[in-house]
Amino acid sequence: MSTLQKGTLIKRYKRFLADVTTISGEEITIHCPNTGAMTGCADPGFQVYYSTSDNPKRKYPNTFELAQNQWGHFIGINTVKANQLVKEAIENNLVPSLSGYQELQTEVKYGEENSRIDIKLSDPIKGNCYVEVKSTTLLLDHDTGLGAFPDAVTTRGQKHVRELAHMVQSGHRAVLVFLVQHTGISKVKVAEHIDPKYAEEIKSALQLGLEILVLRTHIDPDQIVVTGIGEFCD
User: Fold this and answer.
1) Of 120, 128, 40, nearest to 83 (Cα)?
2) Phi and psi dihedrals of 55, rounded to 5?
């Protein structure tokens, strides 16, 4: 991660924008690369860490990368980086259950609903493994470290689970990865109270053989790295 600058969040709005007070006291608008609800991740007064692009064509050269909440937890805001983090973790053999495949591809077209899989692993002996990555930042309980996905109703997420279930039915391996980009979260559940349909799709897919994997991360202003396996609470 490039050197980040620090500020204080004034507000996040219109999904893609956030107003920030810099250390020098200037108020600026930065790009927010997260279209989700960001519940508990972007409250006014939170510390913000942002990167700066040297692309002169960008209207907003600064990008919201990290937030730090009232408990000091770091939260990865940039969901675009989630797939890359999991890819690097697999390549560095940090995910034992996904190791030993000969080939790793990203953004491969597949399924019956015009989808792209985040990561496809293939091997002449092991066969194919389809890996879908979901950045997880919703903290439900600070005391227990319980987090959840999704933080809003996600028809796109429902579709992805159906696609994974179809891969299992077709004889392949399918893994849904909840990548925890929140240092206060150690275990993850499906947020049935937020998206009951998503929860139903998960239950059906699990019965067919879908695997769920929780990956924890270390986050600070200098880096985000996968550190190990977390707990899934079904």
Assistant:
1) 120
2) -75, 110
CA R_g for the chain: 18
Residues with Cβ within 8 Å of 228's Cβ and at least 6 positions away in sequence, in order, are 94, 215, 216
The rounded distance, in Å, linking the Cα atoms of 195 and 145 is 21
More confident residue, 234 or 16: 16
Q: Which domains does the chain have, with CATH numbers?
A: 5-76 (2.40.50.580), 79-233 (3.40.1350.60)
CA distance 188 to 186: 7
Pairing relationship of beta strands 173-180 and 211-220 according to DSSP bridges:
parallel
The position carrying tokens 């275990």 is: 187
- CA gap 98, 190 in Å, rounded: 22
- Residue-wise pLDDT for 138-194, tens only, equals 999 999 999 999 999 999 999 999 999 999 999 999 999 999 999 999 999 999 999
Helices and strands in the chain, H and E counts: 3, 16
Cβ neighbors of 181 (< 8 A, separation 6 or more) are: 75, 76, 77, 79, 82, 135, 136, 137, 217, 219, 224
| Amino acid (one-letter) located at 200 | E
